Structure formats: structure tokens, C-alpha cells
Amino acid sequence: MSTSAGAPPRGPERDRMATRIFVAAFILVGLVAPFAFEAAVMPGYVYFVGPPLDLDAPRNGQVVVHIDVLGKQPPDIARIRVTDLATGAVVWDVKPTTPTSECWNRCWNLTLSAGSNPASFTAGHQQFNASVPQNPSFSLRRGTAYLFVVWDSKGRVAHDRFTL
Q1: Which of 63, 67, 50, 53 is nearest to 146 (CA)?
Q2: Are the CB atoms for 117 and 139 separated by under 8 Å?
Q3: How far apart are CA 16 and CA 2, in angstroms?
Q4: pTM to 2 decimals?
Q5: Where in the sequence is the domain holding 29, given as residue range(s)?
Q6: Which residues of 51-62 are buried (b: 16+ CB within 10 A; e: fewer)?
Q7: Which residues of the chain have pLDDT under 50?
Q8: If DSSP codes are grouped into helix, strand and coil, which group holds residue 91?
Q9: pLDDT digits (tens, 9 = 90+) for 66-98
Q10: Are residues 32 and 109 in the same domain?
Q11: Does 67 map to a domain?
Q12: Whether residues 36 and 95 fall in one domain
């Protein structure tokens, strides 16, 4: 049996080479994949869920809604709606007057209270106008369960329930 310098390796030598290639590829994928994923999606925003929504526990007839900023990327809010869960009636529905969100650094804290609340509001420099109600204010009642829903411009939705 003769061997030549240009012949491919055989037996255990070939297995070691295959193992080295596999380990190198595994390490490369482990190091590069997280950064490639981060570069592929918008920084600080997760694509398979809706806007980052969090409601504080209701206290003294009010609830604070946080639509959080991730990093320096403002939430891209396209619509907000509050619905009475018992009746299904839309209590409040607002949309921005401008297509892009300009707000960041904690301006996305909305306080909803039992009683009268303004129907339209400003977050940072972005104005939101109500389609429901047509009046300048809407009312929430203590003891009533509500559904808070927020959409982003890509159609992703986040929601949470609260009772004042």
C-alpha cells in the first residue's frame, strides 16, 4: 500500500479533520449568529411580538400604561384602543396624526383614571386624535373590566386587561 502527498486522508486522520471542521463551524455559528440576528432586525425591537406593553396594578382608581422604549428606538404606535370587556363597546380609540413616532425617553406613560379622561393626547411631539369618542373626553368606571390594545405600524398587537 503506497501513499502519495496529494491523496485525501484515510481512516482516523480523516475523522480528526472532519471533527475539526465541525467544531470550527459550530464555534463560528455560535459567535456570529447572535450578531447577525441583531443586525437583521431593527435594533431593540422584537419582530414576533407587538409593542412592549406593561400596565401597573390599578391603584386609587387609576392605572398607568407603559408602552416602553427599547434602547433608543421609540415604539412605533399606530393605534390604541380601550374596550369594555362586558359589552364589547369601544370606549376609546386613537391614532397618530403623523406616521412616525417621535417620542422616546419615557414619554409613553399614559395614566387612565376612573371618571373623565382626555380623548386626544400628545406623546413627545406626536399628536394622537380620537375617533372614538367624538367628544373631547371619555369616561372609565370603577369595577369595570377593560381591554387595552396597542398596534404598531406593522400590524403587530399587544394587549392587557385592567379593572379600575
Answers
A1: 63
A2: yes
A3: 21
A4: 0.66
A5: 10-40
A6: bbbebeebeeeb
A7: 38-48
A8: strand
A9: 876 655 566 678 899 999 999 999 999 999 987
A10: no
A11: yes
A12: no
Among 98, 34, 96, smallest CA distance to 67 is for 96
DSSP letter assigned to residue 59: B
Among the listed residues 24, 5, 76, 3, the one whose alpha carbon sits nearest the alpha carbon of residue 45: 76
Same domain for 60 and 86, yes or no, is yes
Place of cell 392587557: 160
Name the grid cell of 157.
Answer: 398587537
**Is 46 part of any domain?**
no
In a domain, 88, yes or no: yes
| Residue that the C-alpha cell 413627545 belongs to | 124
- What does the alpha-carbon distance between residue 139 and residue 55 come to, in Å, rounded to a whole number? 18
Instruction: Report the number of distinct structural domains present in the chain.
Output: 2
Return the amino acid letter for 21. Answer: I
